[in-house]
Amino acid sequence: MTESTDSGNARERALWYGHAMEQLVEVVQRLSMARDLPTVMDIVKHAARALTGADGATFVLRDGDKCFYADEDAISPLWKGQRFPMDVCISGWAMLNRQPAVIEDIYADSRIPADAYRPTFVKSLAMVPIRTLDPVGAIGNYWAERHQPSPEQVKVLQALADTTAVALENVQVYAELEKRVRERTLELETILDNIQVGVVFSTHNRIVRANPKTADLFGTVSPDALAGTPIGSLLQPAGSGTLWGGTGQERAPNEIFDTEIQLKRQALPFWAHVVHKPLDPELYPDGAIWMIDDISAAKEKESLLIQMHQAAEESTRFKSEFLASMSHELRTPLNAIIGFSEVLRDGLVGELNDKQHEYLCDIFDSGQHLLALINDVLDLSKVEAGKMHLELEKTDPIPLLGGSLSIVKEKSLAHRISLKLDVPEEMAPCWLDPRKLKQIVYNLLSNAVKFTPEGGAVTLHAGVVTREAALQRAGDLPEVRTPLPENVDAFLQIDVSDSGIGIEADDMARLFQPFVQIDSSLSRRFEGTGLGLALVRKLAELHGGAVRVASLPGRGSRFTVWLPYRDTPGEADRQAILIRPDATPVVAEAPRVLVVEDNNQAADLIRMQLEANGCEVMRAASAQIALSMLSEPPWPDLISLDILLPDMDGWELLARIKQNPQFAQTPVVIMSIVADCSKGFSLGAAEVLQKPVLKEGLDAALERLGLGRTDEAGEPRTILVVDDDPHAVELAMTYLKSFPFKVLQASGGAEGISMAQTYLPSLIILDLMMPEVSGFDVVEALAAHPETAKIPILILTAKLLTEEDRHALNGRVTQIMEKSDFNQRRFMSEVWRALGRRQFVPLQ
């Protein structure tokens, strides 16, 4: 009987437990959706009483060292809203011991404060902690009659408490999230309310919300008044067309639209920057954010900047035209002053007495000084106006530096100033503008010689240095420098140091400014305008380089220029590269010939025949002397070579000459009793003549090399001078009459075209600035006819040529000379150069 009863009780408890767990699952689901503490407590207090069939249930929270009876569900009131010390109440015991408390008779248990329970109906209880690891509260069940809760009831009640712990944590997390969302929302609302850009949220092309700035932009009373308004009625273009630009093309769903457009508003229209950003269609179907920024002020500034840029371009154009006009007006009279004073000084029109010669030298030197001043002003203006451009060539700096030093040699010798060149034996060629580099070095050298006292010294030093070395100070001297360019690792460093008067530290910062001399007394003691060093800085910066001066009074000065050292041109440099097509060797001055001949009589004969053809002759009596002469300037334009030499076979000498790249293109004429044409040509000789050499044979060889002065018919070559300035014509004809040329003159462009077509001259010397038919018109007209298209043209002009002018003349003229640089030696050099050409070379 007992066993049967126990078995039945077990089945009943099992059925009850299963039913209770089903109820508990439903409770858990309800708790998972609870978002606040009151909801959790309400669910738990009812569930706790219903699961165990108790007469009452309490929800207790731990509040520091007290138990707070937060909520209850009972047949009569218990302790809701009261707090008790944890060490005197059973809920505190359950939390402190982290285990359930099950009491059948509360008055028989010492843990129960009997006085607190007498006013209540409670006779028995069960108390379980919420979260056993670190309890945060407790759940209590109470019975009005003595009752012993079963283990299953306690187990279900503890399961409810564990589930409640999870729900409380969720509530806490959710509360924190809500707090953050509220804070973030408040921040965003504050931003939207204060941001100075209109922001609109729309769905289905209607405004849902707009910020105050939007209302302000469109003159609306408040942003709330815009709610429900079609977005198209707010964003109406002031002109024709649509907000989308009227392309008619469909945009991708998530494509951001960004435009600048003039929009309507109640007052005047305004320029707006409008951005349209579609939102996630799953969250906000057809939703978008619009941003509208008033850019009227920026548009006004943009318009002003465009006007200023146009004005600056117009100013630059006027400046360029003024420079061109001033160049012509200043250089035209200088052409006559310098040219005729040189003619008179050199005795081309008669002998002069000493006083006359002295005065003419003063006139000539003063003209050259004025010319240098004009050239410096024009060059500086061209750099500042952006009209001067680099013409990069692969250049060996060493001979260029040596040539620059020789230019100031005469002035330095007159003042007993020693010049020294300190350069490496070899330096790899690099890409730079050789003409501008020569101008830089000449200005530095002439400045050093000018301010160095008699008996002093000037040193020109050059080499390749790293960026780190360039950043080093120049010893203990105070210095001022311009910044080195970024992204350049190696530099060609050029130093010019002198033992001159030196410079005060406070004055060095003004050295590279135009028209500045550091001491006004210097302008009286030393000629100059203060433009030379300013031009040095501008030309260095045009290369992408920098400059430095280091000096101290009484210790001389050291000027340094750094130019980027590139053995291959950079991508940005390629447009500045000057491309020269292959051409036959060109004579730079009167042809210079090196005669290698050991026989004195043969050498004299060759010399006389060459000089009769206007050549300058140098002689080497042996191969070793010839090699020594070829090791330094001046370089010959032609080499005459005998084969039978005392110290070296002529063929070996020819091979060694041609191995030197300096003379790879220099023509060599072999004059020997044992002339071997095939061997001579195979070794690089240009002509092979056999002794005895007759005048006719030598003349013919020179003609084939482009060094002759007669045409194909043996007649003197005809030169046509076209210029409306009678002084310029007279000066050119004076120079030309010293040579066996037939010279014609035309006083204008139309007459020049006619005479060129009639006489087909060997060379035309042409001015550009002529009334009615200009020199440009002459070039165009001659190029249009096959019979005149190949006539060499030498431009002789006072005009400051622009890039457009050079482009118009490119490929159609042989050379350009400025009238201000017009002297007999250079003029005749260019005449011979033009007559010796076999094809045209583009302008430099």
Give a structural overview.
- By secondary structure, this protein is α/β, with parallel strands linked by helices.
- It has 27 helices and 29 strands.
- The strands form six sheets. The chain has a six-stranded antiparallel β-sheet, with helices on both faces. It has a six-stranded mixed β-sheet with strand order 13-15-17-19-18-16. A five-stranded antiparallel β-sheet has the order 8-7-11-10-9.
- A hairpin with a 2-residue loop joins β1 and β2.
- α9 packs across α16 and α23 (749-759) runs parallel beside α24 (775-783).
- The longest helix is centred in the middle third of the chain and has 50 residues, at 296-345.
- It starts with a helix and ends in an 8-residue tail after the last helix.
Average pLDDT rating: 77
What Rg, in angstroms, do the CA atoms define?
Answer: 52 Å
Number of helices: 27
* Residues in β-strands, percent: 15-25%
- Number of E strands: 29
- Category by helix and strand content: alpha/beta
Helical percentage: 40-55%
Low-confidence stretches: 246-250, 520-526, 574-588, 673-695, 837-844
Largest pleated sheet: 6 strands, antiparallel
The separation of the N and C termini measures 130 Å
Shape estimate = elongated
Strand arrangement within the widest β-sheet reads 3-2-1-6-5-4
Throw out a few tags for this protein:
single chain, 844 residues, alpha/beta, six-stranded mixed beta sheet, 27 helices, elongated
Record the SSE blueprint.
Layout: H1 2-32, H2 37-52, E1 56-63, E2 66-74, E3 83-85, H3 90-97, E4 101-103, H4 114-117, E5 124-130, E6 137-143, H5 151-194, E7 198-203, E8 206-210, H6 212-217, H7 231-234, E9 257-263, E10 270-278, E11 287-294, H8 296-345, H9 354-384, E12 393-395, H10 397-407, H11 409-414, E13 418-422, E14 430-432, H12 434-450, E15 457-466, H13 467-470, E16 479-481, E17 490-498, H14 505-508, H15 520-525, H16 532-542, E18 546-551, E19 557-564, E20 592-596, H17 600-612, E21 616-620, H18 623-629, E22 638-641, H19 650-659, E23 668-672, H20 677-682, E24 687-690, H21 695-704, E25 718-722, H22 726-736, E26 742-746, H23 749-759, E27 763-766, H24 775-783, H25 786-789, E28 793-797, H26 803-809, E29 815-818, H27 824-836
Parallel strand pairs: 13-15, 20-21, 20-22, 22-23, 23-24, 25-26, 25-27, 27-28, 28-29
Antiparallel strand pairs: 1-2, 1-6, 2-3, 4-5, 5-6, 7-8, 7-11, 9-10, 10-11, 12-14, 15-17, 16-18, 17-19, 18-19
